[in-house]
Amino acid sequence: xxxxxxxNWSSAxxxxxxxxxxxxxxxxxxxxxxxxxxxxxxxxxxxSEWADSDMxxxxxxxxxxxxxxxxxxxxxxxxxxxxxxxxxRWCAVADGASPSACLATVFRESEARLxxxxxxxxWCIVHPSDWIKPYLRDLGYRIAERLLTYEIEPRxxxxxxxxxxxxxxxxxxxxxxxxxxxxxxxxxxxxxxxPPVLMRRAVEHAFATTVALLGGALAGYAxxxxxxxxxxxxxxxxxxxxxxxxxxxxxxxxIVARLAxxxxxxxxxxxxxxxxxxxxLYRRLGFAPVDEKLPVMRKxxxxxxxxxxx
Length: 310
Ligand SMILES: CC(C)(COP(=O)(O)OP(=O)(O)OC[C@H]1O[C@@H](n2cnc3c(N)ncnc32)[C@H](O)[C@@H]1OP(=O)(O)O)[C@@H](O)C(=O)NCCC(=O)NCCS
Known about the structure:
Elements: H1 6-13, H2 19-32, E1 37-40, E2 56-59, E3 63-69, E4 85-93, H3 99-116, E5 121-125, H4 133-138, E6 142-152, E7 168-171, H5 177-187, H6 196-205, E8 208-214, E9 217-227, E10 230-238, H7 247-261, E11 266-272, H8 276-284, E12 288-300
Parallel strand pairs: 4-5, 10-11
Antiparallel strand pairs: 1-4, 2-3, 3-4, 5-12, 6-11, 6-12, 7-8, 8-9, 9-10
Bound molecules: coenzyme A.
């Protein structure tokens, strides 16, 4: 996702409650949003949507950092979190500033505030070319996992229909959100879960979020995005009790076919190197591994005295 325009920032930041603070933020962002060193992991959000959040840390306009607890979004109430995990979402260092020094300041401040609120770990997906990688290492972040990438040309994918017998597959609706989040929480460990606000974004903004129903109940779901001719499946999950009967294959092939009808020439997906079940499924359906491994870095935070939420 791209970086928002300056106009975007100004309009968002003047709507804040604390005019002095938001004016200062607006100045910082104006300086930083064109910096060469920017890390953007906002996924479904635009930068301006976070303008008034209290989760930012700044270092005299030379660096800005946004670490958000997993369960929080579109809110500025950091002390309301109950998540043990936060994700690094946005970071920039002004051109001409020393990254080591100012990153140390903003990370120290952000991590201390998160630890005070009970967050125990910060995670970040790092692309091999990301400027921030060596700095994260210096700041105590270590590789905790690697994501593998697989790709398929839709015209080579098998037909979905044999796998879909007895299932109803349709686009997800807002009314499905509770059931989707419950399934997601059963299917994924905490860092990878979609909390309700993220799931809503997926349902409302993805190219497609589809649900498979068995006897009217949610059996599984898939979600994909489409950028020009590149489709990417961002989510696939099946109820634990309903696995190994073809539902995962059906959902995946169905969403690949939807992407193909919309013009996708290639469809990719990622999975954790440790997720052998998913990898077997992808290979069996004709997905080929791509020579790109994305490190997922993690830092375990020291607990803050007096911090934490009951
Ligand atoms: C990965 C996941 C979506 C697969 O869903 P699924 O419905 O079990 O997938 P399928 O049934 O199509 O295939 C799984 C296996 O069951 C086998 N199978 C399918 N139908 C079968 C049947 N009728 N009888 C026996 N085995 C069957 C498949 O051959 C496959 O075997 P394999 O492991 O040797 O490849 C599911 O395990 C899941 O939700 N995992 C947690 C979330 C996750 O990891 N998501 C993907 C990564 S982001």
